[in-house]
Amino acid sequence: FLAAAGQKIWQILPLSPTGYGDSPYQSCSAFAGNPYFIDLDALKEEGLLTAAQLKAEPWGDDPKQVDYGTLYTSRYKVLRTAYAAWRKACKGLHGCSDYFPDDYYAFTLSNEAWLEDYALFCALSEHYGKRFFLWPSSLRQREPSALERAAVQMERRVLYHKMLQYFLDHQWRALRAYANARGVYLIGDLPIYVAPCSADVWAAPALFMLSPSGAPSRLAGCPPDAFSPTGQLWGNPVYNWSAHARTEYRWWVARLRHALNWFDA
Q1: Cα three-residue angle 257-106-44, rounded to 5 degrees
Q2: Bridge partners for 11 per DSSP
């Protein structure tokens, strides 16, 4: 459609998982993609879902409107079904209990710096709740032995969240190639903040202004403007810029490099 309309640029909102209020600016990760964007029909073509499984779920009453409340329940149920089919297809290959596709291993290796923490954070959030500063202290403070135990105990959940990111990355790269081949280039959106209960804050608390408990000690917002005479309190934790400077802004450099794997600008 864009190419036929003579357009060359497609500017989009962030791909990050949405948080409170279905906003991509309150995300649990600065690196992960939103599983809402995984094409279920593509998974059906790969034999991981059936037409009957897709038809059995409610998706809302209006095909032109997104029902986010329904998505939150129906989509993840279907994705877990696809995950089970994927695991079954990988069972016993090459004499291994599980042998996943080579490009899955390539994806996890190239994204290891954020993917391991993110997948474990998601698994722990499902078990303990998203407010990580209320988790058991050993997990809140990231004691290595506690993290290792949790990763083993929650192996299937962790792998599930890795698989979702693998599917999304694979599909998005195909979409970008399809657009680029038609002369359409993607401008992405890089939210400046993350949610207070995010994998980023949990994995690298020194990079944020936090209280001893791990909750934000400073919150982002903006002064009074045309939208609000009293200003806006967004609730995102503020960065500890001196800590970022000491690392030569490594976290930000990684974010930008990661974004440019998905976008042209």
Answers
A1: 100
A2: 187
Q: What is the pLDDT of residue 167?
A: 96
- Give residue 163's identity as a one-letter amino acid code: M
The Cα 7–Cα 185 span in angstroms is: 9
The SS3 call for residue 99 is: coil
Q: Backbone phi, then psi, for 215, in 5-degree steps? A: -80, 155
Reported as a single tens digit per residue, the pLDDT across 141-197 is: 999 999 999 999 999 999 999 999 999 999 999 999 999 999 999 999 999 999 999
Identify any residues that bridge with 9 across adjacent strands, giving them in sequence order: 185
Distance CA 152, CA 225 (A): 49
What number is the average pLDDT over the span 239-248?
A: 97
pTM of the predicted protein model: 0.92
The Cα–Cα gap between 167 and 26 comes to 23
Residue at token pair 């009074």: 224
The CA distances from residue 143 to 94, 122, 226, in Å, are: 36, 17, 46
What are the phi and psi torsion angles at 161 (to 5°)? -70, -30
